[in-house]
Amino acid sequence: QAHLVESGGESVQSGGSLRLSCSTSGFTHSKYCMAWFRQTPEKEREGIAFISTDGTSTYDDSVKGRFTISRDNAKATVYLQLNALKSEDTAIYYCSKDRQGKVRGQGTEVIVSA
Length: 114
Fold this sequence. Notes:
By secondary structure, the protein is mainly beta. 0% of the residues lie in helices and 52% in strands. It has no helices and 10 strands. It has strands spanning 3-7, 11-13, 18-25, 34-40, 43-51, 57-59, 67-72, 77-82, 91-96, 108-113. The chain has a 6-stranded mixed β-sheet with strand order 2-10-9-4-5-6, with no helix packed on it. The N and C termini lie far apart (40 Å).
């Protein structure tokens, strides 16, 4: 059974940076496209960053140029580097082993204050 655990979320000031991690187990990490999603009470869950098995990454326009997704298959871990954070980045961030976000972890909360 797939198990994903996100970490690294915290409160940070606008303009700051964070690095989120997602440790996975229960499936062959290297064979799956991995993704990061985020959700707020006001918005539906949205996919913001995706990384394919060959390392190719794509981003939602809202984070392009500020966030970077990466993966370490040896550690079965996927990362999300968040730079130039804005208040609208405040959300719970989830990693997922599919592009729809169906199989995901419990999330880690990022709070960006002005």
